[in-house]
Amino acid sequence: MSNFPSTARVVIIGGGVVGVSSLYHLAKAGWTDCVLLEKNELTAGSTWHAAGNCPNFSTSWAIMNMQRYSLDLYAGLEKEVDYPMNYHVTGSIRLAHSKERMQEFERARSMGNYQGLDLEMMAVSDMKDRYPFMETHDLEGGLWDPADGDIDPAQLTQALAKGAREMGARIERFCPATGVTRDGAEWIVHTDKGDIRCEYVVNAAGYYAQRVAEWFKPYGGRTLPMTVMSHQYFLTEEIPELAAWTKENGRKVPLLRDVDTSYYLRQDKNGLNLGPYERNCKAHWVTPQDPMPEDFSFQLYPDDLERLEWYIEDAMARVPMLGTSGVGRVINGPIPYAPDGLPLIGPMPGVPNAFEACVFTFGITQGGGAGKVLAEWITEGQTEWDMWAVDPRRYTDYTDQDFCDQKAMETYGHEYAMHFPHHVWPAGRDRKLSPVHDKILAAGGQMGTFNGWERANWFAKPDDDTSEESTQTWDRNGPWAVRVKEEVEAVRDGVGVLDLPGFSRFNLSGEGAAEWLRGRITGGLPKVGRMNLAYFGDDRGRILTEMSILRHGEDHFTLITAATAQWHDFDVLRPARDAGLTLTDHTTEYSTLIVTGPQSRALFEALETKADLSLGWLTHQAAEVAGKPCALARVSFAGELGWEIHAANADIPALYDAVIGAGAKPFGMFALNSMRIEKGYRAWKGDLSTDYTLLEGGLDRFVKLDKPQDFPGKASMQLEKQAGSKKRFVIMTVDAGDQDAPYMSTVWHDGAVVGETTSGDWGYRVNSSVALGMLRADLAVPGTEVEIDIFGKMCKATVQPDQPLWDPQNERIRA
Ligand SMILES: Cc1cc2nc3c(=O)[nH]c(=O)nc-3n(C[C@H](O)[C@H](O)[C@H](O)COP(=O)(O)OP(=O)(O)OC[C@H]3O[C@@H](n4cnc5c(N)ncnc54)[C@H](O)[C@@H]3O)c2cc1C
Asked: What's the 3-state SS for 200-239?
């Protein structure tokens, strides 16, 4: 007992693969004074019974990075820590049943190749060479990943634990954390064996993570968004045919994933392991009648193979030998799901010095990378790769349990589904509604969600096809296209209105607020009555975020930012409170109408607006429109003459009616995206991310290296300025086919990859497909011809001058 640690720099709660990998990576970073607490034996949660499959595949750049890193780590771990490990690199074939699926594979192949992975498209005729036991009916083709395989999850965890211990980190088994207390700047983690005082705490409690998160509520925490699902696989008894083949060939057959049917099938010893993600799935521990047990260590749910029948039959038709042997063992275990199925890795929202690394649905293949990311967050305050995809702050206050359960069921049942650009998932909707939500629906609004807020993507006419099926395509055109074009044309030629609830909106005031901001942003502040875009960098000069700053007085500001950025950006500003300033969040009290188009001034005049409509671009003023008080901000993300109306929720319906009555045509987010791309305006966490520095991102004019204040990233930017940036932001017109370039399409020149796209869309005003992206600096010259790999099709593209494609001199905005 006396040997029990009473202090540590970091305490990790949870000894599954993720917690242990976090400990290993902290120790590797030199933080050896760290302790991991495990309530039972290591791996007692989800880890011990995982199938152990380790794919690289993902259509998310960040997740692919994380998985790729894991697999590299695992390949060398046995030797590195001298611990025996069953890691079989068998390769895998992903099966495609449709043209769309092949396009998805092409995209992943291209991304994977860019990350150095040898992903290859496969013809149906080649499949039997790699997998002699499969039937190839109904298939379009496949994707081959030679590095896929399976690992023993318990051995992996023990190997990481050995590595961590040998570097000096400690693991306390059979030692549940029972609570936390904050004492000054320190955490005290309580256990029955004693308290541990530490600087940082990590919640790596797997499917118990929501319970552990409760302890942090007195210190600013929230209910952690997750649901526990049941996931099953079964192992067959030995299949003599497979045993003979394996003996003869000296290897296992590759892992098969039939993603359209929705299962994985892999060799386990001389039998097979079949694991479906079934539509008729089951959540556990979600009702008061079925509470989560205090301890479920090393336990399983009762077998429920009936649920999988349809999938088993399908798999038996694909690999008939599956039906030749009996079921040996069924594993039905708890698997935690966040609403989008991705884990939570990063700062615990609202709580100082607390982090999360939990809710993993693919924790075995992601564990290695997750440990790296978590350790970077703690030791450096930033991560090598942009990890917004898994940042816990991507969820805010709308994720009640009902929402989490609905989304988990939907996500699990569509685990392998394609995520098409014009499709909106139906579960868990209507969490946050605009004051004019009913009016938007009545006008034909086809809604999408943005940080839980419902906004129209486009407006349908009565006979338009608004079915979910119509959106199952990567193509630009669908029933929405003609309407989006009409909406853009209305904004271009007349005036449009976009109802935009949920803009994140913060007020910052107090003596010294201006000086505080100057020490944070990379550029200058607007004068009183004016507004401008401001950028916040990280220590490496990378793009942390962008906010619009409206200045009301010397030390009084409103900061407006993307809906999804609400909790992230509040964290960026939070230190203002420590500096004695007043920082408040007004996101839910006000809403915004974007009124834009060449006729917008005439529209406001017709409404007898009490405001000076001659004030120029980037001004804001208190005003009255249609008898309602509001603020008018003279900006337009669409790139036309226009004003944003900011008003209290209660006044929005009257303002909306007035604007519509004066002739504005409603437009949606699809039209806005098309127009902002033509202007070269960057969107957050696509074009603007910590994968790029501000200077690479072409934001030089927002960086004042000569201002007296220091600000995060200044020193790095000074160095980068001297050395020259390796990449540069470019706008490209694309000779695209039916699809515009999605995020992270590779850009080619002279047979080599020279960059990537960060967003793409059709520009209706310039009548061209447009891509924004990053290019090797020497090629970022107007007129350079490149090719973009769009779903496997090489499309010619041309680098454009560094100015908007539409209205390059901004004359329309300034009119
Ligand atoms: C049937 C099945 C098959 C799967 N197959 C795969 C696969 O093939 N590939 C893949 O990548 N993933 C797979 N998974 C998912 C994988 O198992 C999980 O994502 C992974 O194990 C999560 O690891 P973890 O460390 O986050 O959580 P866990 O392994 O659940 O670890 C959390 C730990 O925290 C401990 N703990 C909780 N509360 C406390 C406390 N208060 N104090 C101290 N300790 C505490 C628990 O005892 C537990 O050991 C599968 C899951 C299931 C159910």
From this structure: EEEECCHHHHHHHHHCCHHHCCCCCCCEEEEEEEEEECCC
* Cα–Cα dist 487/594, whole Å: 13
Residue nearest to atom 4 of ligand 1 (CA): 50
Choose one of 304, 335, 365 to mutate for the ligand 1 pocket test, by most ligand atoms within 8 angstroms of C-beta.
Answer: 335
So what's the pLDDT on residue 757? 98
Q: What is the 3-state secondary structure (H, E, C) of 609-650?
A: CECCCCCCCCEEEEEEECCEEEEEECCCCCCCCEEEEEEEHH
In 116-254 the beta strands, taken as DSSP E runs, fall at: 120-122, 141-145, 149-151, 170-172, 177-183, 186-191, 194-203, 227-236
Task: Give, in order, the Cα–Cα distances in Å from 809 to each of 557, 660, 687, 804, 815.
Answer: 29, 30, 22, 8, 11
| 95, containing H or E segment | strand 92-96
Q: Can you tell me the distance from the alpha carbon of 388 to that of 55, in angstroms, rounded to the nearest whole number?
A: 21
Buried b or exposed e, range 424-447, using 16+ CB within 10 angstroms:
ebeebeebbbbbbbebbeebbbbb
CA–CA separation, 303 and 306 (whole Å):
9
The residues near 293 (Cβ < 8 Å, ≥ 6 apart) are none
pLDDT tens digit sequence for 763-809: 999 999 999 999 999 999 999 999 999 999 999 999 999 999 999 99
Reference 745, options 38, 114, 48; nearest CA is 114
CA–centroid distance, residue 256 to ligand 1 (Å): 23
The DSSP output letter for 11 is: E
* CA distances (Å), origin 149, targets 86, 89, 412: 11, 4, 22
Query: Residue with structure tokens 């242990």?
Result: 20
Which residues make Cβ contacts (< 8 Å) with residue 777, sequence separation at least 6? 724, 725, 726, 727, 728
Q: What's the pLDDT score for residue 284? A: 97
pTM (global) more than 0.90: yes
Phi and psi for 355 in degrees, rounded to 5?
Answer: -130, 160
806: helix, coil or strand? Answer: coil
Distance between CA atoms of 502 and 452, rounded to whole angstroms?
9
CA distance 219 to 27: 27
Q: Which residue ranges of the chain lie beneath pLDDT 50? A: 1
Would you say 667 and 491 are in contact if contact means Cβ atoms under 8 Å apart?
yes
pLDDT for 144: 98
Residue found by looking up tokens 């965890």 in the block: 157
Cα 564 from Cα 797, distance rounded (Å):
31
Sign of torsion, CA 414 417 421 422? negative
SS3 category, 690: coil
Ligand 1 binding residues, C-beta < 6 A: 13-19, 37-40, 44-47, 49-53, 176-177, 204-208, 212, 231, 233, 297, 331, 333-335, 358, 360-365
Residue 207 Cα to ligand 1 midpoint, Å, equals: 7
pLDDT score, position 798: 98
CA 232–ligand 1 middle distance (angstroms): 14
DSSP state of 320: G
Q: Let me know: does 49 contact 43? Beta carbons within 8 Å.
A: no
Give the DSSP H or E segment for 75: helix 61-81
